[in-house]
Amino acid sequence: MLINCYYYAPHNHCLLQRHIEADLEQMKSIGTHAVSVCVQEEQLTNWHHRRLENFIRQAHGCGLQVHAVPNRWGGLTAGWLDGFSSWTLHHRDLLMAGQEQQGCCDPARPELRRHYEETLRLMLTTFEFDGLIWDEPRPPTQSVIEFLDEMSALAKSLCPALAVSMFAEAGALHLAEVFARTRHIDYLGADGHLRDQTHQMHRMKNTIFQTHAVFHPVLTAAGKKTLFLLEAQRHRDEDLANYLSVVDRAFALPMDHLMYYFSAHEMSLENEERFNRATWQGVSHAATVK
């Protein structure tokens, strides 16, 4: 099983390289194989370029693969950083009808196709990425999935060894059947909250147990490898007890590619260590038994 840490965007901020290295070493020590970071279109050419390059070199030096997560390219994917890229803002005529507020461009437009092709080619020929992950296709429609599947074929033509993955937002359960028909993506699945079904949080989405129950049987029946992002995100102090009660069960779910957040909670300082320790112990256990 591939174990992958979603590390958001450490190369965007004022983190010291030695602090990033400490995190990477922690990931490696608990059994992580890969680390994923969000990549905006602008980062491939502006001052972030060097920081991204440095991050990849550091991760490879720690023995970790690095997977790129295209962040809101043309509005067709999610990612960590909110908002729209400058490319999308300058091509508002390409927005899909009814999706203007979400900033989702129309995958049928040749201009968007050229943008993806050029950006993928630039990213994959400039940086030594080992994988590519499409985060929550938007809107969750067959046309968007088919477009990203085609872009996955292009990415593999540029880097034959590239591992390509895609996961749906937890509420898009209908995408399981659509995902099963893709041809060029190695790992498919969904994200989902780590909480009990009856536990109420300030931000609600389907649990990882719900999404796994839908996506896993459909995808395995189609001969696909599965991916699930165990979303330990935005949990607060009042959610800690419930999180601790389900974390081991979540990390024991069968899958081929497990993604987890290194640390994405909204906990107080008093509870942060307990939350992170439980997550990292779940990763370590998954790496040992699978």
Secondary structure blueprint with pairings:
Layout: E1 2-6, H1 17-29, E2 34-39, H2 48-61, E3 65-70, H3 86-89, H4 110-126, E4 131-135, H5 142-158, E5 163-168, H6 175-179, E6 187-193, H7 208-221, E7 225-231, H8 240-251, E8 257-261, H9 269-289
Parallel strand pairs: 1-2, 1-8, 2-3, 3-4, 4-5, 5-6, 6-7, 7-8
Helix pairs in contact: 4-5, 8-9
Radius of gyration from CA coordinates: 18 Å
Oligomeric nature of the chains: single chain
Tell me the helix content.
40-55%
How many DSSP helices? 9
The span between the termini is 6 Å
Strand content: 15-25%
Average pLDDT metric: 94
**Sheet with most strands: strand arrangement:** 1-2-3-4-5-6-7-8
**Elements, N to C (H/E):** EHEHEHHEHEHEHEHEH
Any idea what the shape is?
Answer: globular
Number of strands: 8
Unreliably modeled segments: none
Structural category is alpha/beta
Largest sheet: 8 strands, parallel, barrel
